[in-house]
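Example 5.3 — Carbohydrate deacetylase
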Amino acid sequence: MLAQCGGSGWTGSTSCVSGYFCSVLNDWYHQCLPGQATPTLPPPVQSSTSLPPTIPSSTTLAPLPQPSVNGTELIFGNLYTGCTVAGTIAITFDDGPFTWTSALIDSLNTAKVKATFFVVGRMYGCIYQYADVIKKAYDSGHQIASHTWSHANLSGANSGTINTEITRLETALKKILGIRPKWLRPPYGGTSASMLSNMRTLRYKVVTWNLDTEDWNNLSVQSSQAKFNALNNNRDPKIIPLAHDALQSTAQQLGPWIANWANQRGLKAVTLSECMGEPIPGGQYDIVGQPEPRDGTWTC
Ligand SMILES: [Zn+2]
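Solution (predicted structure tokens):
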């Protein structure tokens, strides 16, 4: 059993015993691992003067998915945990966009699967630095949904905090994509009656997951894969796997593996709204405008 040594809300010891070092797995879980610290942590958020290389022009991307008028939109303020449409799987990635997200999108597109990205404004990176990555995901037909601005636990938050966490990310997605997302995954899976009430007011459907890869918990890629393989006798598990594109091993190994696993089992990997039988794109977004040109407000 490896000891926790920090993270959001952690009040215990932040040091490790001899021979171990404190590894920041993510902002809510730091764990004592054997050996010496190595510089593998995500780099800090950089200023907008050092933008990453831009993605090739969107003219080379696949066309937008064809809208479907079929389906019934689900209910704002309700909590959902699994798919309902037979033969579907909704692969989900949280905590991006980050360094690895763009290549993951390429892998998903090559596998001809759709996924859903629950994005944050500022965590590992700043959303405005990865605007082209989000645009690529959106233009490829993946669903973009909210994971709050700063990865806040909304379960005990007051309405003012919730409102700020939601609307600040909405502002970014309006600028970058011209949409307002209608789905939220609460950070830490944190829900409460008051939180769901706020989500109803703010017009969000709330989803957690029904298969946790535990990539966030430093589970090996092989151990995460075993969770899928354990579904052997359940040919239609209607799963919504939880994974994190902000983690390199997930973006480069586990994510593409899940896509191929779904394809090989004959499951259709679709966006969250599609696996819920919702109309596309009406169940996913409000269209609130056109993408805006980058200006001085695109900062975190
Ligand atoms: Zn998260």
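Remark. The pocket of zinc ion is lined by residues 94-95, 147, 151, 187 (CB under 6 Å).
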